[in-house]
Amino acid sequence: MQPSLWAGDMILIDTRADDPPVRGRDPRDQRRSPIYALIDNGEARVKRIERPTPDLMMLLSDNPDYAPELRHGDDMKSVQVIGKVVWWGHTNRD
User: Fold this and answer.
1) Could you list the pLDDT tens digit for every one of the 94 residues in the chain?
2) What does pTM read for this prediction?
3) Whole-number Å distance between alpha carbons of 50 and 35
4) Residue (of 1, 73, 65) closest to 32 by Cα position
5) Where is the Peptidase S24/S26A/S26B/S26C domain (predicted)?
């Protein structure tokens, strides 16, 4: 998730917000999607999530080297959302 989050950063997760809302996005809307902590096929990850329709989930990275990952229908069951990342802090690197 660089440049927003770096390896070793601390994050605060709101576990009550574990269901990313379904919402269409106006093309003029320049806001970034919210960041969520999730388990994807047994692997802990942190990604931005968009849900344009109930049967589509997009996992997005801030790093342009990583393409968006799409989950359709039953593939969405492999993603367990832990909660929304509401705060993060960079750690001191000596």
Assistant:
1) 788 888 889 999 999 999 999 998 888 988 889 999 999 999 999 999 999 999 999 999 999 999 999 999 999 999 999 999 999 998 776 6
2) 0.90
3) 9
4) 1
5) 1-86
